[in-house]
Amino acid sequence: MKNYIYTTCCLLLLACGQSQNSTVQNPVQKDSVSVVTESVESHSNPSSVSEIKNAYAAINDKLQRKRLDSVSFKYDCEGERTGTVTYFSEQGRLALIKHSFNEYSHFSAVDQYFVRQDSLFSFTPIA
User: Fold this and answer.
1) pLDDT tens digit string along 55-111?
2) How many CB atoms lie within 10 A of CB 102?
């Protein structure tokens, strides 16, 4: 998981233009720690829509019940863009990357990247 953190820090600093005023704060900040009974690794990577929906629901359920460990850091691109990247893992295996950010005073967003067996999968719920 350290490789994911290092890579994300590098990409964010590149996106900020590598300015001396760009910062990454608290590159490793641990939050909740808990014991889980079902491992993310116990399933194969989802391939059908129903498997993706099930995997998405399982990770979100564990996230809501605070059954995932987390590590986060904050960054600031000279006040133009600021944000927090949080990595959620289960038994040392990355399960979710959450990127919350703001641009100036008029835009904010949250990106979520779901991971299983070191591969991304995605699900966009229909409203």
Assistant:
1) 889 999 999 999 999 999 999 998 889 999 999 999 999 999 999 999 988 899 999
2) 15
Strand-pair partners of 106: none
Rounded to whole angstroms, the Cα distance separating 58 from 67 reads 11
DSSP annotation of 20 reads T
Say whether 43 sits in a helix, a strand or coil.
coil
Cα-based distances in Å from 24 to 16, 54, 107, 112, 125: 11, 34, 20, 20, 32
* Best CA proximity match to 73, nearest among 115, 105, 30: 30
CA–CA distance, 23 with 95 (Å, rounded to integer): 26
| Sole residue written with tokens 């944000």 | 83
Spell out the residues 6+ positions from residue 95 whose beta carbon is closer than 8 angstroms to its own: 40, 59, 62, 68, 88, 89, 114, 115, 116
